[in-house]
């Protein structure tokens, strides 16, 4: 007696990972159902998901932001460290290069505003030969940067710092004799003091310590000679204005309002500079 058996058919193909077709995988993604090899597997709340589904899900989740709209970053305040490094490097170069080359080419004086306007910013990264000058400014920058940069995010913090530095030079331009020569990060640092004041007010914190600190530093500018209180005042006002826009901008269209306000502060500073230069005697221009 003979028995009939079904004819043998083609063997069922083994499931393979779409990203790695040479790898057999019997584990399927819980979202899309496709096979996923060990290298493409990602642990999820329930089961395993493939790397493609995880990436797609991440795109649909809004990015985390600080309370002022910046991107939160772990670790040390990078922009603060970079600003300090530039200042220290410029200080070392000024000491190393003879004949005051760095000072002569990058310090700011009002009568140079039209011919060499970049000095309004470069001077904020220079310091006098006194070690106390740079030491105080770097210490203050480190303390303020650690408090403000994580809250603002890197880009907003850098914007406040640079606008305050520019405003410090504008303060010197508006309130000092035309032949006054200034260097130092004090304008930018006072801008950060103004920023910290606004942030504390926004958060409902105690303002007395900041006010006392501001009063002491403002008094030093009048008591100790050769300190440009005009730069302190300009930086303080600009830093506070920029931070007010950043801190109090409504959630709707927040980026547009924040950056538009910062740009408006810059436009006002440029307008003041152009107006002041137009009042200079002709022999001082150019």
TrEMBL record:
<comment type="similarity">
    <text>Belongs to the peptidase S54 family.</text>
</comment>
<keyword id="KW-1133">Transmembrane helix</keyword>
<dbReference type="Pfam" id="PF01694">
    <property type="entry name" value="Rhomboid"/>
</dbReference>
<dbReference type="InterPro" id="IPR022764">
    <property type="entry name" value="Peptidase_S54_rhomboid_dom"/>
</dbReference>
<dbReference type="InterPro" id="IPR035952">
    <property type="entry name" value="Rhomboid-like_sf"/>
</dbReference>
<feature type="transmembrane region" description="Helical">
    <location>
        <begin position="181"/>
        <end position="198"/>
    </location>
</feature>
<feature type="transmembrane region" description="Helical">
    <location>
        <begin position="256"/>
        <end position="275"/>
    </location>
</feature>
<feature type="domain" description="Peptidase S54 rhomboid">
    <location>
        <begin position="115"/>
        <end position="247"/>
    </location>
</feature>
<keyword id="KW-0645">Protease</keyword>
<keyword id="KW-0472">Membrane</keyword>
<feature type="transmembrane region" description="Helical">
    <location>
        <begin position="233"/>
        <end position="249"/>
    </location>
</feature>
<dbReference type="GO" id="GO:0006508">
    <property type="term" value="P:proteolysis"/>
</dbReference>
<feature type="transmembrane region" description="Helical">
    <location>
        <begin position="157"/>
        <end position="175"/>
    </location>
</feature>
<dbReference type="InterPro" id="IPR050925">
    <property type="entry name" value="Rhomboid_protease_S54"/>
</dbReference>
<keyword id="KW-0378">Hydrolase</keyword>
<dbReference type="GO" id="GO:0016020">
    <property type="term" value="C:membrane"/>
</dbReference>
<keyword id="KW-0812">Transmembrane</keyword>
<feature type="transmembrane region" description="Helical">
    <location>
        <begin position="124"/>
        <end position="145"/>
    </location>
</feature>
<feature type="transmembrane region" description="Helical">
    <location>
        <begin position="78"/>
        <end position="104"/>
    </location>
</feature>
<protein>
    <submittedName>
        <fullName>Rhomboid family intramembrane serine protease</fullName>
    </submittedName>
</protein>
<dbReference type="GO" id="GO:0004252">
    <property type="term" value="F:serine-type endopeptidase activity"/>
</dbReference>
<feature type="transmembrane region" description="Helical">
    <location>
        <begin position="210"/>
        <end position="227"/>
    </location>
</feature>
């Amino acid at each position: 007696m003979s028995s009939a058996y079904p004819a043998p058919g083609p063997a069922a193909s083994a499931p393979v990972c779409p990203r790695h077709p040479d790898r057999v995988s019997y584990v399927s993604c819980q979202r899309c159902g496709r096979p996923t090899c060990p290298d493409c597997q990602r642990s999820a709340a329930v089961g395993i998901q493939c790397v493609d589904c995880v990436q797609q899900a991440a795109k649909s989740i809004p990015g985390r932001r600080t309370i002022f709209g910046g991107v939160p970053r772990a670790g040390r305040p990078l922009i603060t460290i970079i600003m300090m490094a530039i200042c220290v490097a410029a200080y070392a170069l000024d000491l190393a290069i003879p004949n005051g080359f760095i000072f002569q080419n990058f310090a700011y004086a009002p009568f140079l505003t039209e011919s060499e306007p970049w000095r309004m910013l470069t001077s904020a990264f220079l310091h006098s030969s006194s070690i106390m000058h740079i030491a105080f400014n770097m210490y203050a920058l480190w303390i303020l940067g650690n408090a403000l940069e994580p809250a603002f995010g890197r880009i907003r913090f850098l914007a406040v710092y640079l606008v305050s530095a520019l405003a410090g030079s504008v303060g010197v331009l508006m309130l000092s004799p035309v032949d006054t020569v200034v260097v130092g990060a004090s304008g930018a640092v006072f801008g950060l003091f103004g920023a910290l004041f606004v942030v504390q007010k926004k958060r409902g914190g105690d303002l007395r310590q900041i006010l006392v600190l501001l009063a002491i530093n403002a008094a030093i500018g009048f008591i100790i000679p050769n300190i440009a209180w005009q730069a302190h005042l300009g930086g303080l006002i600009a830093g506070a204005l920029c931070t007010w826009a950043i801190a109090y901008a409504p959630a709707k269209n927040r980026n547009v309002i924040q950056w538009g306000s910062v740009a408006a502060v810059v436009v006002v500073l440029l307008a003041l500079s152009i107006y002041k230069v137009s009042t200079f005697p002709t022999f001082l221009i150019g």
